[in-house]
């Protein structure tokens, strides 16, 4: 499992409360605690919570599948997530799982709690829903991501035409459920033709920590190509509208420097950048 890849959830001031909530439910721990950024570790996996302000709201276009081994475990997580939450699919027995439910918690994060065989060591798996103009593009997206990232592969694809009887009248060739890996990190995806009132946005992004400028440049140019969009401070959108943050580990080292003044100069330099340029950060640091 790759801990250099992890989701980032956007909050309007309540990240700490949310971090404590998840650590209680999933027996996790807070590993970084600042007014803006909190990192938590759940099942040995990193999640970043960002107090970014009121600009973006999290939604179900990216949900988190929690792989459970017993019915009791499913029930335990469900009961706690239900507190102040909204049930999207009732906790029940379905053709794909003996005990499964989909819920939006009180902080706006959506969880799919799933009893079934483990696909990997990773217990929490981000699940991308391709809707609206992206409906039917899940396979294309997986092929794109697994080409861009090293050590990547498409693990399994179930199309609607091959699945259980489909009451939602989905296109048979579209992806009902698929599992892929980017650099050893598991993700799921699906196509959905329902006219949801949401889509990919900055509310949930994927962070990729890079080792050097070459890796940073490769991911940045590959993900912004063919209709992607560069944003600020290492953020970008790919051609499907999914948000990514390409962050060199060197940036974190310099920003965490014990010399507060130097760290602040690095932050100011980073704020002016679109793609993060390590050389320019180093120059700012030594200025």
Write the layout of secondary structure elements.
Layout: E1 5-11, H1 15-25, E2 29-33, E3 37-42, E4 45-51, E5 62-68, H2 71-81, E6 86-94, E7 97-104, E8 110-115, E9 124-130, H3 138-148, E10 153-159, E11 175-182, E12 185-191, E13 204-210, H4 213-224, E14 229-230, E15 235-237, E16 243-248, H5 249-255, H6 260-271, H7 278-286
Parallel strand pairs: 1-4, 5-8, 9-12, 13-16
Antiparallel strand pairs: 1-13, 2-3, 3-4, 5-9, 6-7, 7-8, 10-11, 11-12, 14-15, 15-16
Q: Could you please describe the fold and organization of this structure?
A:
- The chain has 287 residues and is α+β, with helices and mostly antiparallel strands.
- It has two domains: 5-191, 2,3-Dihydroxybiphenyl 1,2-Dioxygenase, domain 1, CATH 3.10.180.10; 211-286, 2,3-Dihydroxybiphenyl 1,2-Dioxygenase, domain 1.
- Helices cover 25% and strands 36% of the residues.
- The protein is built from seven helices and 16 strands.
- The strands form two sheets. Strands 2-3-4-1-13-16-15-14 form an eight-stranded mixed sheet. The chain has an eight-stranded mixed sheet with strand order 6-7-8-5-9-12-11-10, with helices on one face.
- Strand 15 (235-237) and strand 16 (243-248) form a beta hairpin.
- Helix 6 (260-271) runs antiparallel to helix 7 (278-286).
- The longest helix has 12 residues, at 213-224.
- It starts with a strand and ends with a helix.
- Keywords: Methyltransferase, Transferase, Ubiquinone.
- InterPro entries: Glyas_Bleomycin-R_OHBP_Dase, PhnB-like, VOC_core.
